[in-house]
Every structure is written in C-alpha cells, then in structure tokens.
Amino acid sequence: MVQANRRLVIKSAAAAVGAMSFAPQLMAQSAPVRVGYSMSRTGPWTGGAQVSQEPNYLLWAEQQNAAGGLDVKGVRRQIELISSDDRSDTETVVRTYEKLMGSDKVDLVLPPWGSNANFAVAPLANRFQYPFLAPTALSRRLVEMRLPYFFLLLQQPAPMTNALVDMLKANGVKTVALIYVDDLFGLENYAAFKVALQGSGITMVEDKSYPGGVKDLSPVLRSMKDKNPDAFVGFTYPPDTILASRQAKEVGFNPKFFYASVGTAFQLYRNVMTPAGAEGVLGMGSWNSKTSPAAKAYFDAHTKKFAGKEPDRWASGACWAGLEILTSAVKAQGLDRKAIRDHVAGTTHKTIIGDVKFNGSENVGTPGTVSQWQNGEFEVVWPKSVATAALNPNKPVWK
C-alpha cells in the first residue's frame, strides 16, 4: 500500500512538472501577437497617412481577428495593435520605433508613412532585425543602402518616371514643364525624370522646386502657361497636388497632359476637384477594383468599413499587398523574424496588385505605371499590358 502511494505521488509530481513545462507554451500560443507602429494623425503627413496606410492596418487586424486571429504557423492568435501619433515629426518616428523594437520588444512592426519617415527609421529596423514592408517610401537611396530587413512595395522613381516618359513620347509630346517639392521624394523623382528624358526627344522648357507647405503656386504656373508646353508634371504631395490643380484651373493652364502626384489617386482629389474637374488628370497609380477579384474584395471591404471612404489607387494597394505578404510569411515561418525576412526576400508573392518579388529592397515584380481619372475612376492607362482602360491623350478643359 505504501509502495502504491509512493508511485501515485511520483506520478502526480511528474504530471505537475509536465504541466508546468507545458504551461509557457500554452500561454505563448494564447497570447496576442503584439504589432507596433507609429502613424501621422496630426501634422502635414496626416492626409496621406490616413488614406493610404492606417486604415489598412485597422482593417487587416479586424479581418484577421474575426477569423480567429493571425495564423502563426498553424496557431491562431489575436492581433494587438500598439500605435501612437508621430505628429508628422521624424524624430518622434525614430524614438517611437526605438522603443517598440528595443524596450517593448513587440512581435512585429508596421512602417510609418512617407519617404522621409521610412528613410529615418530603416537603419534602426535593420539593426533590431525587424522586417519592414514599407508601402509609402520612394527612395533609390533606400535601395542603395542594402538593408536586408527593409523592403519597398511601391515602384521606385526610375520605373515610374520611365513609364511616364514612355507614355508621353508615344503620344507625341515634345515639351514638358515640371515642379517638384524640395525634399527626398521630389528630388529623387525629378532626378529620375531627367534621366528618363534623355534621348526621348522631349525638351523640359521649365522646372521649378518649391518648399513643403507651399500656399501659392500660381506665379510658376502662369510662367509655364506662357511657355505652352505639351505636358505638365508635378512631383507633389497631396495638398500641393490639389493646390496645383486648382490654381492651374484658375490661371487657365490646361496642357494636353497634366500629371501630378502623390494624392491624385485619392478619392479626396476626385471629390475636391469634382469628377468632371478631375477628368483626364494623370498621376501615380497602379491598381483599382478592376485589377483582380481580390482587389475588388479588398476595395469593397475597405469602403464598407470606413463608411464610403475608398482606398487610394496607388499606395493603399501596396500597403494591403505588404500586409498580405507579412500574413503569409508568419503563417509559414511563425514569429521568427529572420525566417520571415528570408521568406519575404526569397519568394514571389501573389497579391492584389499582382506578383511582388524583391531584388534586395526593391520590388521588381510590379512595373512602373501611369493612371488617369476617367468617368470617376482612376484607371491604369500605361503600360498597356496592365491597363484597366485606354489612355485619353487629350485632357479636357478644366471644369
């Protein structure tokens, strides 16, 4: 009897030890996946951030949690978003991510908005070895930094400006006037555009930079009108894109091709300019709900969740594609960040914007594109191989 009791005690003790050793595993499996990011909710970056990026983060977390949670190598775990307002301030962006990755040690991070913020935080993400799938960064310098944990979803300045110049050349353009914001985005796109013009037969009759936060572009637009170019190009931020468009209308500057970005792909642009006023305007865009059934499902879900607010037809698609890639990587590799990085780097990813494949940090799977407002939709018009509609080569008069 004593021997039997002794055996029972040993079995009970062993079971208790087994339960204790298994408990951390169970707790880890049931714990939420902590996903951190900073986002512009105030300040000059807010317009882009609150159209192209944060709504997608919220929709993604909601959809994943509704399905039982993020699939972490076969185990569903709820997503907990940890975020704060970076006030459109680069130093705040850096401090926030340093805390998220360094002391908070979140499981995953999502990128901030814009080229400047991503440029500031990219080396930090690489140092802490957190995969970054950036949907709103355009910078050849980021590619050239060769940061193995940093991936850019958007088509970079060279492919985008090459597509633009190809389109202009194919449609008989001989002269172009250009404005660009005096920061990383504007400078890099301006430089790439000048390279793309070489050998095209297109002459740049005027080019002007302007400071961020500009309130009046009418003097330079009047000067350009006097030169009567076939095309106007603006490498502009959303408020400046709208400003340039409104003031071009006011001064009667209406070239055959009017291209401005970023912000042209926003529902806001169509609403502010009116569908008739936006008709024929070109800009950076790469997809719409016609691109694929998956793109339409995303478009409809986004519009429903945010009470009629549509995703933009460029960076929103890249943002969602990045979230699709991250979701797939976590499903395959769990939360091992190096394994996630290797999966992202070495896989051709099926996304709502088509195949995405990285060469270093650059997405080389998505071609450079041009889009145009036509009948209330921002249609992909160039190159023809990915077009959702044919190009209208003569912009109508502003309305």
Give the overall silhouette.
Answer: globular
What fold name goes in the CATH topology slot of the largest domain? Rossmann fold
- Low-pLDDT stretches: 1-17
- Work out the number of β strands: 18
Record the strand order, biggest sheet: 9-8-10-11
Main pleated sheet? 4 strands, parallel
Cα distance, first to last residue?
A: 98 Å
Q: Quickly count the helices.
A: 15
CATH superfamily of the largest domain: Response regulator
Pick out its properties.
3-stranded parallel β-sheet; 2 domains; Rossmann fold; disordered N terminus; about 400 residues; 4-stranded parallel β-sheet; 15 helices
Structure description:
This protein has helices at 2-30, 46-52, 54-66, 90-103, 115-128, 140-144, 157-170, 184-197, 218-227, 238-251, 267-273, 275-278, 293-305, 315-333, 337-346; strands at 33-39, 70-72, 75-77, 79-85, 108-109, 132-134, 150-152, 175-181, 203-210, 231-235, 257-261, 282-283, 349-351, 354-356, 358-359, 362-363, 370-374, 377-382. It is an alpha/beta fold and 399 residues long. It has a four-stranded parallel beta sheet with strand order 9-8-10-11. Strand 8 (175-181), helix 8 and strand 9 (203-210) form a beta-alpha-beta unit.
